[in-house]
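Dear Dr. K.,

Following up on our conversation at the group meeting, I've run the structure prediction for Hexokinase-3 from Jaculus jaculus. I'm pasting the input sequence below exactly as I used it, so you can double-check it against your construct before we proceed with anything downstream. Let me know if the numbering doesn't match what you have in your notebook.
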Amino acid sequence: MDTIGATCLLPGERALACPQENRPPLLDSSELGQECLKQFEVTRSQLQQIQVSLLGCMERALKGKADSAPAVRMLPTYVGSVPHGTEKGDFLVLELGATGASLRVLWVTLTGTEGYKVEPRSQEFVIPQDVVVGAGQQLFDFAAHCLSEFLDAQPVGNQPLQLGFSFSFPCHQTSLDRSTLISWTKGFKCSGVEGQDVVQLLRDAIQRKGTYNIDVVAVVNDTVGTMMGCELGAGPCEVGLIVDTGTNACYMEEARHVAALDEDRGRTCVSVEWGSFSDDGALAPVLTTFDHVLDQGSLNPGAQRFEKMIGGLYLGELVRLVLAHLAQHGALFGGHTSPALLSPGSLLLEHVAEMEDPCNGAAHTHTVLQGLGVSPDASDAELVQRVCAAVCSRAARLCAAALAAVLARLQHSREQRALQVAVATGGQVFERHPRFHNILKETVMHLAPECEVSFIPSVDGGGRGVAMVTAVAARLAAHRQLLEETLAPFQLNHEQLGAVQAQMREAMVRGLRGEASSLRMLPTYVRATPDGSERGDFLALDLGGTNFRVLVVHVTEGGVQITNQVYSIPEGVAQGSGQQLFDHIVDCIVDFQQRQGLSGQSLPLGFTFSFPCKQLGLDQGILLNWTKGFNASDCEGQDVVCLLREAIRRRQAVELNVVAIVNDTVGTMMSCGYEDPRCEMGLIVGTGTNACYMEELRNVTSVAGDSGHMCINMEWGAFGDDGSLGLLSTCFDAIVDQASINPGKQRFEKMISGMYLGEIVRHILLHLTSCGVLFRGRQAQCLQTKDIFKTKFLSEIESDSLALRQVRAILEDLGLLLTSDDALMVREVCQAVSRRAARLCGAGVAAVVEKIRENRGLEVLTVSVGVDGTLYKMHPHFSSLVATTVRELAPRCAVSFLQSEDGSGKGAALVTAVACRLAQTAQV
Ligand code: 0WK
Ligand code: BGC
Ligand code: BGC
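The predicted structure tokens came back this morning:
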């Protein structure tokens, strides 16, 4: 190739001189030089336009409004909590991609003591070019090999090692240890990696290598490592800026502004990925022909245009292209070129930095140019230095415009005009280029005058920062493991649920036979579900749930009309004397009658009394024991209908005709049975839990008769009181039971119902706090209070429509100081506890419907279950989990669940109506 005077075009280079017809008059060599230098000048207004345009792109991307190929990606990094400073331990760090075709392995010891630092041990490995552009597996195997080689020299033994992976390429991260590569940059082009989770690829390679037990716990962008590694003395840096082979920045954004995250509090680190900024409007005026040539000659033409004007991988090449152009047009080296001058990549960043060295730049320039096979004279060297300066100044100024856009974003995000911020900087261009840092600083001051910016050079290239993130990730991973271990006993599998179903079935049979069983299987003397012929007006009482209600129920041809009044049962009355309780009940009835103009009328009354009663008849019920926080004295062992009648007598001038006492499960079954005759089971999951169903009378040994049916109140809340649930019971269940007013009793209820789930959650939260997993290990006073964590919180916290922010609001209203990680974990605890409750309840229902099916020797049973109870009705997932579990465990039963609209008061009135109808026919 003749290099004197002949013009040869570089690959992909367009003739710089424009075509004959509009070719400007030929420039002499010095003018040509000037013209080239001029191309790299960027005016202040152009910088401001770039700043504004980049800011616009950032804000659109944050809102998730960016188009398919966003100019900048604004990628969440899942780094939210800045280091506590308490992080300690030894961490491995693997850096790939920050400084070109090399990777670095570091051993970082975090002391957890402010100001006391242990120098990291590190080793750099050059990545062979064929690996940089080869198969992805080869690259990750190379990384695993380097890790192993590095560790061979370290006293590690076979302790598990935690590794932070600094991977400096644009990635979609979905957690601290899951990150998918979007596209390679900076000369990397390995196949089979884009679109893949790079953490998994590294884990697989380490597995294949099989030499050390390394757990990759975090993947971090190099800008994040640089920001996190910034010395705490200076106060946490909130921006990380890298100008190395490539360039990028990250910063701490208000989490609520990141649409991709379901967050509203706190800050989260966002990697801007400004290397891909390419707003033609803003960049076109500053892009030179040399930029286009460089881009066309790169591995990723059209991509990372902004980076290719700033990154250290490209600055040398830009200078070379200008020098080659000037030489070919006789403006340099007397028009002489050389193969080296004409070959891409022959001029590197360090060459440019040397040539710009304020002291020995001129000498270095001669050395570098001779190295390229050209012999410069003094004016050549001077022009070459000016070309270097032009190219690098532009890079620094463009970088400053981008940083100014980030500062403007911080001002918007913090709603602050004056901003004080520390920017951690890292990368060879910063470290090697003599003037880059100052030009950047000055330009930022011009473009963001209201921002007070301190630049903190990263001490070790971000290795410590990556270790910090790894420590945070390791802490979170350890917390997650502790959380999973704590919640594992709440995850009941099919076998365990099948065992509960079978045990309940056996207990049912034993209970029906009057043998020892934790299921009392109490006959209710309700022999049929309503047949629609019931008529009349009835009073009904509904005691035992969240609310005590008095109702008047009108049963007519046209249907059932109900008027009811809710009254409270103060704890002092529920746990006072029986006389006090029943006098209070009668007071409410009298108040209701007065309000409804029923005073003096003696309507038949049905009493829904939701506690275990041994019934001797429809209107006789001996209270076996209180449950659900009731504990009125002198009632257990008594006929509660008598207790009510005595209270009525004590309140003279009141006429009430107590006809029936029913359990709320029976009332609910009857109430739903009135609408759907296939309803033969009643289920309550509220303050307490229980079920009843229509059993074949022949199976009820305590009641005479072999034909027909009898509704049996199972009192399944007591299931397991014989210890048969011991294997499933957790330490938290034991704590809740011990703290209850009836320890050892109602064990099944205490794993399922609303009165207890909140308490189970509270004790799990206390345990996780004591392990340091929650609330930074600080025990919250509010959580020490019994019953402060209401079961309704579970229903609210688990609602899908509730964003994490609302979960935090509920917990903060409780007085908890928490992070989003805490809120996420509290939600998981609630889910585990309520899921177990629903699954156990489902196993119980499956046991009952299977019994009914076998009772009737049916292949398939179609049956409905009437259900009531706040937990079942209000919890977002409880009912569907119960139905799913029943389908799994009783596939030969088609079960529909009918939510009772009118509560069991209506059912009690219907039972009373049936009793009255039977009594009338008996009199006839
Ligand atoms: C409403 C019924 C009542 C039952 C209650 C159970 O009318 O008989 O006791 O549901 O649900 P809780 O109010 O305990 O949530
Ligand atoms: C990558 C960034 C990285 C930057 C600096 C860019 O090419 O896309 O992820 O932070 O280089 O290394
Ligand atoms: C009682 C049952 C009642 C259930 C639901 C349990 O505590 O023992 O009689 O049906 O709660 O209210």
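Two things stood out to me. The longest helix spans residues 378-414. The first strand starts at residue 75 and ends at 76.

Best regards,
J.T.
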